[in-house]
Amino acid sequence: MSRLTITPEDTPGHPTLRTEDPAKIADALRAINVRFERWHLEAGVSPDAPADDILAAYRPYLDRLMGESGAGTADVIRLRPGNEAYPAMRAKFIDEHTHTEDEVRFFVHGSGNFVLHVEGQVFDVHCTQNDLISVPAHVKHWFDAGEEPSFTVLRVFTDTTGWTPYYTGDAISARFPAA
Ligand SMILES: [Fe+2]
Asked: In terms of pTM, does the model score above 0.85?
């Protein structure tokens, strides 16, 4: 299940809110300008289907999101347990950083944690299948999917140069293990 935990940055392990209610998650994130919603397909689609098939299945949702956000492109990435490149990728994802573009991800399958650091609080969003999250540009965050990642996600973007991470140098993610 999707889950949001909010913890003051100076009291790791002592959250002030923990919820698995998608509506409450969306409300709490909306308050910090983070979009969170759940997309459902009538027919479903296999996470191992060709990327074009997955994109076609979610096209109505993608068109609406792109119309509202101005983003122009979407693609599909998959990570499976045993990926030899993953430890190095994880090390990059897990340090606090920002981007110049919104980081928009939709979980077709699997899970991962987006952790946002806003106004002295840590918002740990455990995203699962059917979750859409949009981390606004310049918002401090990190991502972790644990030691054995398993997910298929859509990425929605305008320009891949916006993915460049700008590291804050804050080691906060070590104090807030997510996955
Ligand atoms: Fe990021």
From this structure: yes
Could you report the per-residue pLDDT of 83-119, keeping only the tens digit for each?
A: 999 999 999 999 999 999 999 999 999 999 999 999 9
Instruction: Please tell me the total number of residues recorded for the chain in this structure.
Output: 179
Q: Is the dihedral of CA 27, 20, 129, 121 positive or negative?
A: positive
- Distance (angstroms) between ligand 1 centre and the Cα of 98 equals 6
35-38 β-sheet, strand order: 35-38, 131-135, 103-110, 151-157, 73-79
107 and 40 Cβ atoms separated by less than 8 Å: no
- Distance from the Cα of residue 99 to its chain's centroid: 13
Q: What is the pLDDT, as a whole number, of residue 138?
A: 97
Is 179's pLDDT higher than 70?
no
Residue 145: CB partners within 8 Å, gap ≥ 6?
A: 79, 90, 93, 110, 111, 112, 113, 151, 179
Residues bordering ligand 1, an ion, CB closer than 5 Å? 103
Give me ligand 1 centre to Cα 138, in Å. Answer: 10
Inter-residue contact 146 to 87 (CB < 8 Å)? no
CA of 12 to the centre of ligand 1 (A): 21
What share of the chain in percent tops pLDDT 90? 92
Q: How far away, in angstroms, is 72 Cα from ligand 1 center?
A: 18
As a whole number, mean pLDDT of residues 60-81 equals 94
